[in-house]
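Reopening this one. Same input as before:
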Amino acid sequence: MNRKTLTVYSASAGSGKTYSLVKEFLLLLFLNHYAPHSDTPPSDLSEDSKATESKEKTYNFGFQGILGVTFTKKATLELKQRILRELIRLSKVEPGDEITGISKDVIKELSGLVGKTVKELSTDLPRLSEHAVKQILEDYSHFNVRTIDSFFQEVLRGLRREITGQSFSGSYQIELNVEEAINLAIDNLKLEMDVHTYSNISNVVRRLQTDSIGKDKQVDPFKEIADIAKHLINGNEWEEIKPFLLSQKAQQLISQNQQYLTGVVDKYEPDLSKAVEYGKRLIELRPNKLVEKVKRLSSIDELIKAFCSTDPTKRISKSLIKEWKVNEKTEERTKEISKLIGNVLNCFPDDKEVKEYLSARLLLDYLDYIPILAEIAKSIEEYEHQNHLLLIPRVNQLLDQIIDGDDTPFVYDRVGVRLHHYVIDEFQDTAKLQWSNFEPLIREARSSKHENFVVGDAKQSIYAFRGAESSNFIKLVDGIKKGSGETDQVINLPTNWRSDERIITFNNEFFADIYNYNGYYTEDYDTDLTRLHKMVYERDNVKQEVPDHKKASRAGYIEVSVLPDNKKDESIPDVKTYLHNHLVDLFACGYKPGDIAILSRKNDQCEEVASWLTEWAAVEKDLASKYAFVSKGALSLTSSAIVRLLRTLIRALSTASPQSDKLLRLMIQSYVQSSKPEGNTGRADRLYDSLMKLSTTGLSVYEFLLRAINLLGELPVEEKLYVNAFIDLAYTYSRRSPDLTIRQFDDWLEQNIKKAKIDMGNGELDRINVLTIHEAKGLEFPVVILPFANWDIYKLNENKRDLRLIRIPDKDYPELSSVVKSGIYLIDLNDKKRGLASDLAPIYEAEREALYMEQLNLLYVALTRAKSELYVFTKPKPKDGTVIKINDIILDRMAVLDNLKGDLIKEEQQGILVWHSNVEVKPRRQEKELTSTSCGQVTLDSLVSIVDLKDLKVRDKYADERTDFGILMHGLLSSVYTADDFAPLLQNLSNTGRINEEDYKTLLNNFTTAMDDPTYSEWFPSYGEAIIRTESTLYDQGYGREQRPDRVVLKRASDGTLHGVVIDYKLGDLGPVSEAYRRQVRHYVDQLRSSGVDEVTGYLWYLRSPDGIIKVC
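Same output, byte for byte:
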């Protein structure tokens, strides 16, 4: 058997990467059975399963040693689902049946590896698949397909004793909500701030307050500082720089550098001020042919703009001033103007000095924030220790420090199973540290001759804002191609199985050699990064083949429209009208709403499209159902009147004032009048009084809001979705601690409510899909419309800062050490013009090029989602010919494509320039085309949802009653919060045939009887009365591994003590209770006590027995 230890799949859009991942996963399973490595672990079955299995032949598929890695929970569920479905499908094959799809390819490849014929394997694999599914279901927690973050978190939990500088004891959590942690840390910092600390931040606070004077919106200095901290702590460089940031040396350097940089500014600004004085006199004189040029001398701010401009007609420098020609009618004016220009030159800095001055200004802008960040970092560390938390950004850095390229085997041991194979999906989305942590693990696996697989496509790397670095994938591919190929290989998946022929041909030509980045100051700009990016879009790396069954079909349709500004000619439709017309045409051609996706670059554009669709549905009654849409976030939470009322209530209670109280009364009055306009005299006052009384009862924020909503009465149907989403927000906030105050919730809402959106459902509904391009990644649709294809390339968030910590010397930019003094600095990468004109230009130029690459990738992702029809609405190019928007690139490429060898027609329609496919009649929807279900979110919460055993023919062969029943009941009980939740969930299992009538009656009776006992009913309290954790993770230090009790109930008593109850469900019949079961519960109880819970009680509950509750301790 000769398999490469590393295979990299280069998988362009629609090329079947998931197919390849599943195929390799199945191959690994069957290879572990036929030709296992000596160190492949035996299957970790339960004791009962082992007893059953001992009577049969042992099957070892080693699935516990395979780690499948994806980047989202959705992708994880999809991959698990696909693997299990394929195994189940194969297990259902009867003798003589034809085996197709992935299984056919698995058998063909396996035949050459294990010395069996295709016929033999076609007989063996259905039987083996049954056993593989059985093993996976019985040890499902070790079916290792997971997100990269969850894997690293588990590794870190297992390595807590090796975490340098940490002193965590007992159980601690990985905290995902960084914003919440930072806000609480900021609150603590404000409350505990001493005089020395305040002196560090007073300058920043004073400056922020001063800068906001006279502006419409006053700046909250601490909110501003918190926003900056959140941005930086989520960044890649924070954990790497933080140790130095907290050092005394760093603080000394900050002070020294502040003095030095202030000195640089002070050195140049007196002369610049003189130049401005002379400039103002020149402006007054209005010199002939120099009027516009001398305006650049009107102020220091205008000078800085002119220093940074690339436009020669707007730029200023000493050499350009020397070229100014004085052309006046009188000698006197000529002399006066010439003298003033000479005076300007005498005090004007040269190019090198301008760079030094701009650099000093840039580095000084945020330098005084750094001591504050150090204080915040200390406060957050204290917060982590006090709450037994570890913020998610720390995970990768700490693991990197622990692994450090050495002694990787112990990492596997601490995870709990020795991993042999890694299967990594979407590799282009890995961050630098993530790959740094994974690389030694894969290297260890390869050294033992184990196979590993990586799948990616650098053209679909669109998550740089999350730290993804496509260069990881590009360099890996490049290195393998340049190597010997003895142990590794790159496989290009050449065929596009998604799109019709015309779509494939168009995208092949459109993106071939498209990369054409020009430097900010020179078109000859060329770096290693540029060469890597060019390689990604080389013709051979872009071209995709058309499947044989689609060749010569000429199926598919493309339309690219250039919509001019219609202000001068109202006969030319705007984007809204143009989109409406196209939707009507598509409906007339038989397309269903669910076939159509409208993609946008930004969320606010999705909101705009959603509002249009809502408007059209209201006006066009006959087409109203056609305009129904689904969106992950097209509607803002704050568009709800009731949510605004609840928000005003929180604000009034948080910051009591006559103004806030008056506003609340007005909102209540408005709500009462709109809900029941007649017969409500005095109801508004009564509702106000009830809400005020409720606020004094000491309820948690979450419980207070639930009861406040009850006081509002029956809610309008259209409001319920919004209110539920608002309650979800409150729950997200309250889950950290029920003791958090209304004031803290108000501050938290201020940060989060604007980002909260209403999810209008999933793509399995027959509704138009309104998505951002990021949300559409990985999906496909029969029809794709891109209505706003004119976004900025370099000004994505012009009004927002993009702050980054840098440390000089910097290994990536060693040349900066000669012009910038050592230390830590905070710079704004969105201040590109000033940065590119300064000594920091290498950093800003690399960032600018990365933006260019990512915008190309976004365009690639958008245009490759279409299966049958693609519509792009763009704008004309600017007259100066500069490439600053995506429409500039689109139109440059369309000019190159011209008529695409006769396949495109260019013509004017309604005053709009249009390229469209050369067809006599636009195509109609093919009946075989189904509404895209691949675009739907996977919302499967349990194994029952992933594999519905009820629908399997092989059920009786391997899904024994104990395993099936256990899966079902654990899934049900993990969803139960209050006692009222149990019966409807159980009824659903009965209605769908998953449990029989006898089990239904037994379970319902036993549960209902138990709830009659006040001790047991407290395990299922009303919302907000206790903290409920189902199958949450506790770390058992004695065993060095994680434990997951079925249910934990935590409730604080009136004296402040925290009481806990642990319940472990058992699904067999009640008999002599195993000591192992008792010992397990005692372990859970001990772990809770060590985590700070004052009093803990542990129980076993045999669900099928009427007296099945056993107190253990």
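So the earlier flakiness isn't reproducible anymore. For the record, The longest strand covers residues 866-874.
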